[in-house]
## 1
Amino acid sequence: MAPSLRNDVQSARRSAELREYAGLLGSQFTAARARQRPFTHQERNDIEHTRGRIDQLRFLLELRVGLPSQDPLVIQAWQLAEAHYFELADGLLTRVLAAGDRDGHYGLDAVEFAAQYVPEMNTILALHDVLLTRATARAADERARCERMLIAVSAGCAALLTLLVTFMVQIHRRLLRPLAQTTQALKALARGERVAPLPRPQADDEIAAVIAAVQTLQLQTLERYTLERERDGLSERLREQSNTDFLSGLPNRRAFFAAAEQHLSQAERHGFGVVAILLDIDHFKRLNDQWGHAAGDQALIEVANTVRVSLRMGDLVARFGGEEFVLLLSHCDLDRGPRFAERLRESIQLCPIACATGEVVYVTASLGVSDSARHGLNLEVLLAHADAAMYLAKQQGRNRVEMAAAWPDRPTLAMVADATDA
């Protein structure tokens, strides 16, 4: 707000607030006067509070509109308000207050009170109108002055803009366009694009040096990307090698345990059954002794391939160690698990093993089966039951499938240890 308008606007706002409080004060006399009874303690407090606020507003207005330099119309309106409201109306209120404090016989009804009070109160509204009219006139003068100033400033800005446009046209070709293209190349590098077009330097100046630096950065980024890609590929190969059995190509024991724990968590969450199978090649030491370790390695490879092609999507298999393999069948139960194991056993015994001498031998396997319905979803417990069943299959003559015994309760740690030791 312009400083020249602040005094008039604030004075008009104070006068409007004074008018509201004057109306509020008149309404605070209504209840007691209508019933012709003395004021209550609360009514008396409210009246005094309102009169106090009116006195504050009168003091603030007098500081603004009572100055000798003030507009004569404003001074005249203020004097009229003082004479009518702050003297005549205040005298009326004082008499009503005295009657209300005494016996409640006011001598006039609500209509008579309003007929005497409201005209005197309207002088405040007249003061408010004069102040608003004065503020409107000054605002119009201020607007006209600002418009003249704006025209002058606009003319100056137009002249300055003409100079700036001329200057920009001169530097656009030599500076801005090469910089914009170089910036786009840098943004392309930030997005991972290793090659982006760069402008051709027009002179041996600072811009040419910047373009050359960005070209160097592009070459370094390309080299770094190549090295990172080689590093990522090497890391991935190392990760696969650390989780893969080098001979059979199957996941190793560590990879199996990590995948199986996650698999069993999903089985518990979604409520499907799993079956664990431990498979051990029969008389593997005899095979090595009789036909050599190359034949033993070939037997491991062939058995691994046979197991791999027998699996369904979502099943897990790993080389458990030595001549042992472990399987975890997903969405499987006590009925389907043994049948799968039996088919696998038959496939293994029909798989030919080529020896270095050119002869062909065959191997068999003993399999132990446990299931989550009877043995729970603890991986160690499942494997302990499957291991005990596999040990029983070997005791029963090998080349067979044995189901783990259904224990009454979940096996204790000592029972699991006994089964593992067996």
Note: The longest strand covers residues 274-281.
## 2
Amino acid sequence: MKVVINTCFGGFGLSDEAIAWLLNNKGWTLTHYTLEGELADPDADFVMNTEHKSILGIYSFGKWWRDETKLRCHPDVIACLKALGSRVNTRYSDLKVVVIPDDVEWTIEEYDGLEHIAEKHRTWD
């Protein structure tokens, strides 16, 4: 299984160019907030925010925020990283594809945005 992680301090994020690539080449969708504060399309992949400072104004990962692990394994995201290389990164991310065995139950662990994949196990506090 292939999983995309961030390998620097900062946090996981896709560049405007990567988001545009997904919109234009893979048919991903973009939505916005209505005047009532609702998403115009709750199933959209990305959410637009004109106050955000990026070129496209992407605010969040839309439907992916609920289960980011699916986003990290999505074949389109992996293809985007392969196609664009380091241009998928923001100034706060350095994305990399990690290959793990298919039968491993895994989780992404992070410290200040620097991530690694760990096998799930039981923990107690």
Note: Residues 15 and 90 are 5 Å apart (CA to CA).
